Amino acid sequence: MNIEKLITEAPGQPDFTNNAWIVGDDREVIVIDPAHQPDRIALAVGDRKVRAVLLTHGHWDHVTAAPAFAALMGDPPVHLNPADEFLWRETHPHEAFRPIADGDEFTVAGVTLRAVVTPGHTPGATCFVTDGVVFTGDTLFEGGPGATRWDYSDFDRIIASIRERLFILPDDTVVNTGHGPSTTIGKERPHLDEWIARGW
């Protein structure tokens, strides 16, 4: 399995970047969070078949380019937790997506990604786990959890999601995030109490 990271820039906001992840081999891939610059992501995918587009949550900066990217790649299914449909509709009032449920599995290049629902940042925030790797979107970053400043977010809930759903993974599990650098479960786990004490 190959994992490629593509840093994408929001239109007109070059300082606002997101990580798009391309997972697979030289024949087929799954793309996680094609956030911006659909043409550039399509170029990176090349002639490989896109089996699915997986979205970690419904915030605009993670979903804006998803339909346009899918259209460029032959319309693979775009998957999102329906608990975030209200956020998806803010950006895509008329576009359809396929629902993700906890435990759903997506296979590409002989590797299976399992959906792990981790609410807190948004109600439908979802991570994708495979052997030795987890794609966390905005649930877990190097140095702490994602933001919970919106009325639909919940700090206690994101902490519970991280503790109960992510920190049960092995220490050497690589954490590939929605923004910024990757980290590991073992590096972040010892700091949980610090995050709880500071409240963010």
UniProtKB/TrEMBL annotation:
SMART domains: Lactamase_B (SM00849). Pfam families: Lactamase_B. GO terms for molecular function: hydrolase activity. InterPro entries: MBL_Glyoxalase_II, Metallo-B-lactamas, RibonucZ/Hydroxyglut_hydro. Keywords: Hydrolase. PANTHER family: HYDROXYACYLGLUTATHIONE HYDROLASE GLOC (PTHR46233), METALLO-BETA-LACTAMASE DOMAIN-CONTAINING PROTEIN (PTHR46233:SF4). This is Hydroxyacylglutathione hydrolase. It comes from Arachnia propionica.
